[in-house]
Amino acid sequence: MRKMRWYQRVYMVAIFGFLYIPIAVLIAFSFNESKSRTVFTNFTFNWYKNLFSNEMILKSLAVSLVIAFISATVATVLGTTAAIGINSLKKRTRTVVMGISYVPVIDPEIITGVSMMLLFVVFNTQISSVLSSILGFEVSMNSFGITTLLIAHITFNVPYVIFSVGPKLRQLDRHVYEAALDLGCNPRQAFFKVVLPELTPAIFSSFLICLTYSIDDFIISYFTSGTVQTLPIAIYSMTKKKVSPEINALSAIMFAVILSIILVSNGIDSRREKRLSRAARAEEGKL
Amino acid sequence: MFKKRSLAAPYLVWMVAFIAVPLVIVVYFAFTDKTGAFTLENIMSLGMYTTVFVRSILLAIVATVVCLVLAFPLSYMLSRMHTSTQSMMTMLVMLPMWMNFLLRTYAWMSLLENNGLINRFLGVFGIGPFQMINTSGAVVLGMVYNYLPYMILPLYTIMVKIDSSVIEAAQDLGANMFSVLFRVLIPLSMDGITTGITMVFVPSISTFIISRMLGGGSNLLIGDLIELQFLGNSYNYNLGSAMSLVLMVIVLMCMSFTTADTEEMEAMV
Predict the structure, then answer these.
(1) What is the mean pLDDT of each run of 10 residues along chain B (269 residues)?
(2) Is B268 within 8 Å of A166 when comparing Cβ atoms?
(3) Tens digits of per-residue pLDDT, A222-246?
(4) Cα maximum dimension of chain A
(5) Which CATH number characterizes residue B60's domain?
(6) Fewer CB within 10 Å: C terminus or N terminus of chain A?
(7) Residue B179 in domain
(8) Contacts for A132 with CB less than 8 Å, ≥ 6 apart
């Protein structure tokens, strides 16, 4: 490990400055009394107060959280079962299935959004025409809303679950599973007592990934939400108004939340590592 | 191992209904008119938008190259740090990614404005003001700012695996800085470079928010055109589908240049 030269330090500071200065400015101006985005007049918490009395923001936050939890849960269950099922498929079928699952991951989000929107549009017109012909009068169906959002979010989340649980499944020691069978478990018991506990960390982390993707998603939601607003959609409608310091306040809060989540999870990690290394040392001591 | 093929069934149904069928519908719409009759008109009329397509590709390429040039030295420096510092630094790289990209782009709006912070700052020294927002430069800047971490992380991940003694050996054997760079470092980090390029290029070429927020009305990209056909004033699903199809082809072409994806996919399964 060589010590860094001065120009290397300057370069690093410059890049991290580039990454963080805009966010810092954004947060700083959330405390600015005037609506100006350039002149700092006086310190205030007003924009935070406004934010917490802003019905649109609060409602969209609730929508985002509900969608995130439901879609992450469904995607995790669906993805985990799928990973196990796909693992049992023949190699050629498996390649095809994985190839199609890969599409939402590699496709630009706008294409995923547009294609799902078209699906729902076609669904609406078909159902409407069938209903109209049965009932004898014009019915126009509009399914856009929470349901379509959920379907879209589950769809873009499932592949991440499959891609993170699948490899873990292959790494499992099959002998442990066979031992469980030999010791009298039926396959179901062996699965729940032996296989599933081994997969739990991967399943849990993919659940968290799904949550964050879902809360963060703007583009796909934008095309599939109809008139329902998720938090990113509400943010987008606020940015259109040009000057709204509530956005700055919201950014500051989100940044604080993200930072604390990361710090806490890192703290847990490093404590676990310390405990592990202590345990390892204790083991050595015994030997 | 625990095998149960039937467990794949619910997902397979889901996958066909919500991944495969929507794509088929896009293709169907691209080749039909409003009455549902077959037509090539949608594809043909895309010629009108050549400038937009060229601009999108160009800006995405510029953004990708800038990201690569900025990220390469940084990732290398990160990969040569102490392990404990490394994890903190990669966290610092990832942290902005967790902010919603609308907020990150919004941050630049207020910085780049005509009477924004940057122009005011330059004004103190008697320079400017410059027209920065609503230019294609601002759009590229927005892309670079939003997607730079996507370039840094894969590069860093691959460079961590490069043994410092390999580089030292090259130097001992008389390689100068450029030979080390072009004959050792770049070849060894090729996988990271290609991943980074796709991860920056694909979202850059398909964005419509960055161009709208930072580019004003004059820097339309493919994404904006598509959005206009589906949710905007133009409102033409068939034309929009044709544009989406072309965008998909561009992205697939880019992917085929940069990844041997069947092998990678196999590795992931």
Answers:
(1) 80 94 95 89 91 95 97 94 87 89 90 84 80 90 96 94 91 89 91 92 93 87 94 88 94 78 45
(2) yes
(3) 999 989 999 999 999 888 876 678 8
(4) 85
(5) 1.10.3720.10
(6) C
(7) yes
(8) A138, A139
Whether B142 is covered by a domain: the verdict is yes
Residue B22, judged by CB atoms within 10 A of its CB (0-12, 13-18, 19+), counts as buried
Q: Which residues contact A75 (CB under 8 A, 6 or more apart)?
A: A153, A154, A157, A158, A160, A161, A210
Residues in chain B within 8 Å Cβ distance of A79? 11
Structure tokens at B141: 């800047």
Q: B115 to chain A: nearest residue by CA?
A: A38
Best probe of the B interface among A101, A107, A156, by most B CBs < 10 A, is: A107
Q: Which of B15, B77, B265 sits opposite A8 (nearest CB)?
A: B77
Q: Give the C-alpha separation, B22 to B26, whole Å.
A: 6
C-alpha A107: how far from chain center: 17
The length of chain B, given as a count of residues:
269
User: What's the length of chain A?
Assistant: 287
- Amino acid sitting at position A237: S
pLDDT at B266: 43
**How many other C-beta atoms lie within 10 A of the C-beta of residue B111?**
21
Residue A118 is nearest to which of B29, B231, B268, comparing CB atoms? B29
Nearest Cα residue to B21 out of A95, A126, A74, A227: A126
Size of interface A-B (CB pairs under 8 A): 236
- What is the sign, positive or negative, of the torsion defined by CA atoms of B14, B17, B20, B22? negative
